Predict the structure.
Amino acid sequence: MTVQATDEGLYSGGQLLRYAPFPSENIKPRPVDIWLPPGYDDGDDTRYPVIYMHDGQNLFEPGLAFAGVDWGIDEAIVRLIDAGKTGGAIVVAPWNSARRRSEYMPQKPLATPALREQARHFAAENGALPYSDLYLRFLVEELKPFVDATYRTRPGRNTTSVMGSSMGGLISLYALCEYPRVFGAAACVSTHWPIGEDPLVDWFENALPAPGTHRIYFDYGTETLDAHYEPYQARMDGHVAAAGYRRGVDWETLKFEGAEHSEASWRERAEIPLAFLLGSAGK
């Protein structure tokens, strides 16, 4: 695949490259941002772990981000570098599309009898059932091979992770479950469990990859939409613990009092999930 960056700039000492659009045979082509950490072009052969992050237009530039506030991912990683918590990372950030819900809603659960009602409601509200399996094929079969061939990545499972918020939290967990040989960790920020309710939470009980070889981070706030998440997250935590994950070792769930469902809130705590993902991969 031959793809050329159409734009680039410096962000917190790193470099942001934009591929617009990035081609795909699975989903509608869209921009993909790739952020390279400070020192990437210093002339050495250092290779870096990679984080795949959804909703790419919300991560680096306030002028593009929802409500004019970006996550400040570049700044957060630089702070982790300065604190000696990571040697850096490459961030690969496909933008979302107008069919965001259809691409991010876990597809296989809605095909089960337990989620028949949720599937009916989803199709009525969104015009069709989700096609997130195609979105994941884009990530794994099209985007990742290009990134690994073009940049100095550490392409193995233990150094490849996925992260997102809200519906992006759902697709991040789904990616970990569907491609456990590709992704070693997932950070699910303010995961939007209510769209599938308890049956969706329970579907993941038997889908989780093996603990010890995989790591999972969850969090949620207490205000606006996040105020509805705690009961679902507690149910999910029970499944994670029953699967053998150890809190503080290969799993973490954090509650942020007063935090809203917004880019501004996620920006405030971005370092925490990033540090979790890079803790065993980025030094």
